[in-house]
Structures are given as structure tokens and as C-alpha cells.
Design goal:
The chain is 50% helix and 10% strand. It is built from twelve helices and nine strands. It is globular, with a radius of gyration of 20 Å. The chain binds iron/sulfur cluster and zinc ion (2 copies). One zinc ion (ZN) binds at residues 285, 287-288, 290, 296-297, 299-300.
């Protein structure tokens, strides 16, 4: 027997487990968009006249992010979306993802800005991995540090007010739990900072999909036929994250709503930490002048190591 949509009574195509909603295709798309709009409003992520740099990887998360922001932004004529791809230089992977990103932006009548590690830092990610002396650091550590740096520089060049990234609820809760299990409370607070608490010298970051599960994102992109690239990065497979992912998936399956509860707890802890302590001011990197927790920022440290 075909189940009915909890919203409109038409045949349902999707069960959103954490809200117990059965949804038809139209209501799936509408409620997904509404969830993102609510997240944006609740955290005051956007202003009416923002220039929004949208980080596009070519994957499904950023495809959904751009698609939904494009709909929301059409109500705000003074605001502007600037899709940006950072090409890390991962042979056989990023080049294919870049094609998907170009097609997606074209289908939305937007122009894609492309920047690369090679042009910005003189090394592609493949070269950084090859040249690193500290083999205990995986490719993702270099990738994360340089992508953060690259996005900030690019957003400044494009005079963007804010950078939107496609991190979803699953990504966010995995990161929160990894930081808890490593005993790194400062990082929990740093990765959950709201726009209002952003630091001078760093373009504020927002994560409009942070309350949307990966399952929701897959369903949304599937039903709208969005263009994205689905092959995993050859460097992916960080063992620690994979363990936490399967633990969290298991918990979410047994107790729907667990992921949202973890996210909201981390937000509350962040707020409490930032309010109670004055020890959150950043230094300025001696080499590149960007705000950093230490005298020399991580990206400059890594570049020094690579150059030898
Ligand atoms: S899996 Fe790691 S190396 Fe690959 S794109 Fe993601 S962060 Fe970068
Ligand atoms: Zn419906
Ligand atoms: Zn630096």
C-alpha cells in the first residue's frame, strides 16, 4: 500500500525519520528548503544585501546548497551569489568534480570562479602530500588547512561578506564528536562560531545545511536531478572519522534525532565557552598577517616544512 504524504495526502516518496514526516516529492523539496531557511534565520546567517561566496566542490552537498540559496536569494535583489571552487590539485578527482561544478552553475545561470592551490601556494595537494616530511599527517590535514586559507583569501579578493559551505548535519556531528574524543574543546567552539562572533581579518563562515541530514540531501538532489560528482576522493577514508560515522549512523537509526541533539549541545557549549572566557582572542600570524591561534599559522608552518 502506498503511504500518503503527511503534508498534502499525495503518494509519499520519502520518510524523514527525525521528524517522522512522510513526504511527496513536492513537499520533500519544500520542507527541505524551509529547514535551510529556518537555520539561516535562527542563526542570523545572512543579510539582505550580502555578497555570498558559495564554496562549490562539485559534490552533492554544495549542489544542494547552491540550489537552495539560489531560490532563497531570488527574494533579495540586493544580494548576490558567487559560486567558488578551490581546485586542490587531486589528479583524476578534482578535475571531474570541476566539470560537474561548471555544469551546475551554468544550469543556474551563475558564473563559477575557480582558484587553485597551485596558483595560490605554488603546490597542488598531490605535490604537498608527496613533499611532506611529517608522514603522520594525512592528505586531509593539508587539504583542510589550505582550503580554509584559500577560501578566505578568495572571499576577500571577491569582496564577499560571507562564505557559505555545504557542511551537513552528519559532517558537523562527526567533527564535534571527533573533537570531544580528542579532548579539543577549543576546536569545538572555533568550528561553531556564529557570524556575529566572527573575527576581524577572517571572512565569516556560515553552514546553512548544518541541520540537514545527508539522507535529506541525497533525497533532495535525487528528486530534482541536480548535477553532481559522486566519486570519492582518493585520499578519503580517514579511519577515525569513518568509525565515528558508523557509530553515529547506528545511533541515529536507533534514536532518530540524536544528530540534531549533538549539534544543538555543541552550539550551547560554544556559546557558554565564548561568553564565559576572554581567552579567545587570536594572534596575528608573523608570516602572513592572518588571524591565528599561534604566532605562525598552520598554513605557513606547513609551507615552511614543505619548502624545507
Ligand atoms: S577527502 Fe581529504 S583530501 Fe580529499 S577533498 Fe576531502 S579533505 Fe581534501
Ligand atoms: Zn505532499
Ligand atoms: Zn601565516
Amino acid at each position: 500500500m502506498q503511504l500518503e504524504c503527511s503534508k498534502c495526502g499525495k503518494p509519499a516518496v520519502y520518510l524523514r525519520r527525525y521528524t517522522s514526516e512522510r513526504l511527496c516529492q513536492a513537499c520533500l523539496v519544500q520542507t527541505t528548503t524551509d529547514r535551510v531557511r529556518r537555520t539561516i534565520n535562527r542563526h542570523k546567517m545572512l543579510r539582505e544585501d550580502d555578497r555570498i561566496a558559495v564554496a562549490i566542490s562539485g559534490g552533492k552537498d554544495s549542489a544542494v546548497l547552491l540550489h537552495i540559496l539560489n531560490k532563497i536569494e531570488s527574494n533579495f535583489p540586493e544580494s548576490e551569489l558567487i559560486p567558488v571552487t578551490i581546485d586542490e590539485g587531486i589528479k583524476g578527482y578534482r578535475d571531474k568534480a570541476l566539470e560537474a561544478a561548471k555544469e551546475l552553475t551554468k544550469s543556474l545561470n551563475l558564473a563559477l570562479e575557480v582558484f587553485s592551490f597551485k596558483n595560490m601556494f605554488d603546490y597542488s595537494l598531490d605535490e604537498l602530500v608527496e613533499l611532506r616530511t611529517d608522514k603522520s599527517l594525512g592528505a586531509c590535514s593539508y587539504c583542510g588547512v589550505f582550503r580554509r586559507r584559500a577560501l578566505n583569501e578568495v572571499a576577500e579578493t571577491l569582496e564577499a561578506d560571507v562564505i557559505a559551505t555545504g557542511h551537513n548535519l552528519d559532517d558537523e556531528t562527526q567533527t564535534i564528536l571527533m573533537n570531544i574524543m580528542r579532548g579539543d574543546s577549543r576546536r569545538i567552539a572555533r568550528t561553531n562560531v556564529s557570524r556575529e562572533r566572527s573575527v576581524e581579518g577572517l571572512v565569516p563562515r556560515i553552514k546553512p545545511l548544518s541541520e540537514l541530514s545527508e539522507r535529506d540531501i541525497v533525497a533532495y538532489s535525487h528528486h530534482l536531478g541536480l548535477i553532481y560528482h559522486d566519486i570519492p576522493c582518493p585520499y578519503s577514508g580517514e579511519a577515525y572519522r569513518n568509525d565515528i560515522r558508523s557509530f553515529l549512523n547506528d545511533m541515529e537509526h536507533k534514536r532518530p534525532g540524536t544528530l540534531l541533539a549533538i549539534l544543538h549541545s555543541a552550539e550551547a557549549v560554544t556559546e557558554a565557552l565564548l561568553t564565559s572566557s576572554s581567552d579567545w582572542t587570536l594572534k596575528t600570524c608573523e608570516k602572513c598577517n592572518t588571524p591565528s591561534p599561534s604566532e605562525i599559522c598552520k598554513a605557513c608552518m606547513m609551507l615552511e616544512e614543505i619548502r624545507g
